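Input/output pair, single chain:
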Amino acid sequence: MVGLLMGTLFLCLFFTVPIFVSLAISTVVTFAFYFPGMGDMLTQAMVSSMDSFPLMAIPFFMLVGSLMEKTSIADKLVDVAKALTGDSPGGLGAAAVIASMLFAAISGSGPATAAAIGGIMIPAMMKQGYEGKYCGALIGSASTIGPVIPPSIPMITYGVTIGVSVTTMFTAGFLPGFMMGGALILWNKLVSHKRGYRGEVIAKGWGEKMKIMKSAIWALLMPILVLGGIYAGLFTPTESAVIGVIYSLLVGKFAYHTLNWKLYKEALVEAAITSATIMILFGGASTFGRLLTLGKIPETVSNAVLSFTRSPLVIMLIINVILLIAGMFIDTNSCIILFAPFCVPLLTSVGYNDIYVGVIMVVNLCIGMVTPPLGPDLFIAQRIAGCELEETLPEALPQIAILLAALAIMIFCPDLVLFIPRLFGMIA
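Output:
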């Protein structure tokens, strides 16, 4: 059964069949051969997997990101980042990273961050003398922070797949996200000193900076409302996503006067299409996961690895190499659904916390979002910059190396990832 299931899956993937179709085909073929009278289980598993309250957060967070892009909320966040960095060397590049982090604290999506912040910052950076290839690489790399800083779509996917607290996952993502952002800002500073890249002066003195902050107050209040409500225990991540949508609509319509029916419909369509791809993926993966359980495949994989080595660090490094390679070809949510059922039981059996494992998986796979051949974040950013991959990739490679160094620190220092959840008593 295992050979037929995995063989059919990899055969479909080899012929570039979409991942959710590959999962469905391999599952149906295996069920037809080994469980011909259990067809009802397929449909039941598929429907029940999508009948999940935490999963409802995904379409609403997607809609929040689309609304921010369509209205002036993202522009206001960029203005704040520019005001903070000023005319210092690399100021505009630092502003791009900070703006990506601020946007990430609301949308939770890497590609959405690349499109929204890249569309605003890349033209501004190129106008100030930044090379297009560098702009595309920096925005693409900074966009990987989007799914790490909460709220995070991949963290919701992991939480639902493994059955852990999404709120705790969000809390554990803060320090890794800020570490990645700080590392990119430092790299941008070094490169900018060498190449003479500077910032853009939009405010002279703290008086003008405070004026910009005041004009952006409604945009800045959004992450406080969305995340603060979760951590204060006022509402769940799903409820916070709904509140984020309502807040975006009110701010876009009545505070910034930029939202109209045309933009609202465009945002709805974008969010619906993106959310549908994730939901249908859950449907295909649920039946696939049911077969994995019936075939005891996770236990078989765990026993095989443990027979080779029982060192927790070696096992963690092996899994991270596998995830890095997989993340180059398969999108983040698909990888989580495919690999989490194998990786989490194995790593928890050697002493790792399941929340920590989830954060490491998300950070690892998000780096894949800027790594060719798939690299959707890099692809979006380079297209905005008007560059080809062969131009952007040399600029992106050092930044990918920096993100990998940040990942290595998290692997060797698990307490760094779990510090905030432990501080709030969410884990032991």
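The longest helix spans residues 261-294. The chain is about 80% helix and 0% strand.
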